[in-house]
């Protein structure tokens, strides 16, 4: 599972990375800006971002709004920076000072949650109804006929559209069908 450590000061990011490495975590990327964090999240696909209240180019609140689907955020900051009325289920806040044990257990819990969400989505994809399969196959046929794609290319195109638009593959196929019938 991937971890991104994002703090405005590079030395803070590297200290947290070092603490997590000593705690047995791996696949850790350290960054100092929100844009770097978003780019890393896009590359990695899933995981947890550990960050402070402020990054070099944005606040945690701006970053949490742009979290990709399979990412959660652990925000570590002083009590006066506590997120007021936090209704975002993908944001967990730990007040400073934080103990290693609390950090490790919270991070492990979050990583397990991300892993479960991915597994659940995978099972859902594998158990599509016959109607959903027909919609996807019709969309692939349109792509293959009108755009001279192979079946694997059409499938990959639907997956890409699905990921880019933030919808599931059936919804992406329905979009192709609605555009294909114009």
TrEMBL record:
InterPro entries: ANTAR, CheY-like_superfamily, WH-like_DNA-bd_sf. SMART domains: ANTAR (SM01012). PROSITE patterns: ANTAR. Residues 116-177 form the ANTAR domain. GO terms for molecular function: RNA binding. It comes from the Bacteria. It holds the Pfam family ANTAR. SUPFAM superfamilies: CheY-like (SSF52172). This is ANTAR domain-containing protein. It comes from Butyrivibrio proteoclasticus (strain ATCC 51982 / DSM 14932 / B316). The lineage of its organism: Bacteria, Bacillati, Bacillota, Clostridia, Lachnospirales.
């Amino acid at each position: 599972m991937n971890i991104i450590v994002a703090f405005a000061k590079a030395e803070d990011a590297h200290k947290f990375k070092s603490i997590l490495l000593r705690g047995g975590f791996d696949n850790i990327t350290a960054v100092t800006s929100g844009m770097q964090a978003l780019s890393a999240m896009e590359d990695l696909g899933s995981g947890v971002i550990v960050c402070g209240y402020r990054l070099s180019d944005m606040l945690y609140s701006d970053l949490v709004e742009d979290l990709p689907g399979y990412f959660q955020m652990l925000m570590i900051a002083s009590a006066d920076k506590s997120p007021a009325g936090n209704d975002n289920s993908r944001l967990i806040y730990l007040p400073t000072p934080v103990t290693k044990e609390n950090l490790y257990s919270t991070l492990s819990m979050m990583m397990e949650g991300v892993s479960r969400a991915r597994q659940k989505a995978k099972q859902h994809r594998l158990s599509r109804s016959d109607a959903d399969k027909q919609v996807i196959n019709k969309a692939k046929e349109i792509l293959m006929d009108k755009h001279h794609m192979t079946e694997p290319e059409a499938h990959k195109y639907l997956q890409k559209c699905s990921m880019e638009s933030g919808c599931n593959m059936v919804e992406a196929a329905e979009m192709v069908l609605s555009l294909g019938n114009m």
